Amino acid sequence: xxxxxxxxxxxxxxxxxxxxxxxxxxxxxxxxxxxxxxxxxxxxxxxxxxxxxxxxxxxxxxxxxxxxxxxxxxxxxxxxxxxxxxxxxxxxxx
Length: 94
Description:
Layout: H1 40-45, E1 53-56, E2 61-63, H2 64-71, E3 86-87
Antiparallel strand pairs: 1-2, 1-3
């Protein structure tokens, strides 16, 4: 019996994956960018591929640079006007 040669040959494979956080609010209320994207400051400076998310005890999340700039004028959450208290989330390692 004659061996039949395959007509298709795979030369290379590139694997791609995506991930996201389980959030109720997916955009930063300050800069209006998606929380999984870079904030305006990181985008302008091209500092890093990842922009750290800052979580408040109230449950709201913002880009760290955005909320730091906000807190220089007001020490309240931009969404619910409670006093801003940051909560440490274990996946924020920066």
